[in-house]
Amino acid sequence: MTASGHVRPARRFRRPSTLALAVVLAALAVPQRDALAQRERRVGSVPREVALEVTHLFNASTTRRVRGDFTLAATDTVRGDLAILNGNARLSGVVYGDVVVLNGDAFLADGARLGKGLTVLGGTFESPERPNVAGEIRVWSSRYRYQESGDTLVADTDFLTRFSEWVRDEDEGSTQSQLFVTTAHTYNRVEGLPIFIGPRFRTRHGDTRVRAEVFGIFRTGDQLVWKDENLGHRVLFEVRQGNTRGIAVGGRLFDEVDAMERWQLTDAEVGLATFLFSRDYRDYWERHGAQGYVSIFAGRGHELRASVGEERWNARRSRDVFRLNDEVALRPNPQGDEGVMRLLTLSGTFDTRTNPKNPLSGWYLRGEYERGTSTDFLPGNALTAGARPLAATASSVADTRLAYGRALLDLRRYNRLGPNAQLNLRAVFGGWMNGDPLPVQRRLSVSGIDALPGFDFRRSLGTNDVGTCATGDEAGYAALGRPAQCERMALLQVEWKGDFRFEPFGDDDGGDRRWQFGRGGADGTWVVFANSGRGWLVNHGTSGVRTAADLAADPLRFGRNRVPDIGTWRTDLGGGFDFGDFGVYIAQAVSQSGVSPNVYVRLGRRF
Fold first, then answer.
1. Where in 172-330 does DSSP place strands (E)?
2. How many CB atoms lie within 10 A of CB 194?
């Protein structure tokens, strides 16, 4: 039976006599509590006291700690407490202490015995009809949110709850219906605040999960008006088979605004910069169409995915959205290309990090290849001169046909040098692979506080800028909205981190927070880093070596099989302090003279 909902007997019984009923109740009462009370599933966020309780148990030196899936055989015994993090627990033996399963499912086989209680956060619980558990059984479907500091966990008890959510748990146990009112991605200068509202349905039968969503989208824009520009929709249906590994098949209909260059910065950072400082670090366009997909997943973070769809791309204008610093004008949104696009996308993720939010060691690899075609492509006027020449293929931009291939690869390695030190590396490569020149929506840049924080965001340095691939004067480029224009880019990043602690008013051993405003204490890491990268255009007609005269005439364009000399890359150095939820840094450009250092704040880790 399943304890993700209410407990139900596996079969029906005839009505017992009064004496028989009394005997049964007495047997259940000693030594166990009522099964319904034991297996009650909590709805909503994990209470702060529970998060701190399980964190303390996990960090205790006497606790047996396991990361990933764990199986306890019928002949095995754990004589103390047991904690499983980011994995499923299948218990057939004996545990004398408490059992905590964090972000995973728990299963008790026949013959399993727990000497104390069981707590499951971010998962479900299955067991025989009457599990042999001496203490209380508690199950929350909400994930356990945490950070890591050295070998210990730090509970994240300050995350925000959703604006509004109504939840109804069906009597059948594993079905959940929700009426959602929430915000989509982030605040921006094109939509204002996009608000999603609509029903969401989820059900689970064994290892099969079904999810359906029907959301309407209302955009606050520059004024609260009910018009087409402020309206959209998103419909999703997905069937997922398998728990830790399996396959998912789904489809979606959408009319929504999407962002270019999502690989840089987070939604929260972009939204706050727009709302507080009138600095929007992304560009946007409208996507209206349909898509189907299939994915194969295994464990946490391993997935292969293929999708195919058809959609119409439309340009979007920048609007005078509400913001605190409205004396500063918003950057124009570059005019995106338009047309009906047919897209085939192949992507994969490989993730062995100890914790996605605060990794201490492991690998992260994210790759994507997109093949796009169109027969009614209409290029916009968002690029500077020379950034989009006619293709050397039969289907050129000039006759409204387009066919291109684009790839993006993000590789990261996290290395733990000791209990309090890390050396982390990142390499990002992406851009044109084959076919026609890339549309505006798929172009790239190496600029801003995520990539090269020592250089101002998309500031054109000279008449041929290697960060944005802009040509001509700065004023003309700014008038276009400072679009990303490169067809290819490369970025290398390295950082060295070490722990520090600052307690001006004494140590607080009971604390479980990365930052304590009320007590004046903080702990986190110091960071020293270096970044180097650049972008370039592709000479679609040749793959050979260019002469010195060619480079002097067009220093941004290289053959399809060439990478610019590393001496032409932009490089910066910097350092700062990372407090977990935010960090404060300073960066200085070293490959370009006359550039002032930048001081900036990041929400979360650099990468």
1. 175-183, 194-205, 208-219, 231-241, 245-259, 284-298, 302-315
2. 22
